[in-house]
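thought: fold this chain, then report.
action: predict
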Amino acid sequence: MNNKTPDVSIITPIHNGEAWINDCMESILGQTALNSLVVQVSIYDDASTDKTWELVQIWKTRVETIRNISLVASKNTTPHPKGGKIHFTTSTLFLNIIYGLLPIFPPYDQIIGSNFERLPKDSTIRFTRWANSLKEEQLYRQIYTSHGPTLIMPTWFCDRKVFERVGGFSESGKGTPEDLIFFYRHLDHDGRLFKVPRCLLVYRYHPGATTFSIDE
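observation:
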């Protein structure tokens, strides 16, 4: 267990994720950043009705025996991140995303993202092609399409001051596009965007994702 102030907080909202939370946590533990950085995993259980919360508690116990990582969890409210840098994600699979983004060291007014792969590979082909092909100027010009944020939330990496300036995520519940609201508020505060043109994350597709409960 590590009681040091974390360098990076990984915020992970999850709803009924018992089928993939183990893969998600295993991928976090596989990050090479844990060799030199203190990482806090902040899990937000968004009203799950399956065994997600039970699995989170098992992982919390396991993580207590591992150096350089801690896990905090809450139900229906977002844990307050303590890390100087924040990575937002979902129950996805990681490549080496923390080390892939950390060297860029995001300024206080910038959200950094990256390209990604889909799992299964043939899911949301047009969306994936669109998001991965965006150039710097298009990150701003195409913010009002039906695709949502031009940087997908599971790749977001930013300074904690970005999170505090925006005021965190909306907690209005299912059907609310929390990531899009956060994204627009960030831009309303003259926030900047940057994308690393490399694949640093495997983004899992599943029909029950919160994304599909949101009306255009």
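thought: worth noting. The mean pLDDT is 86.
final: tokens above.
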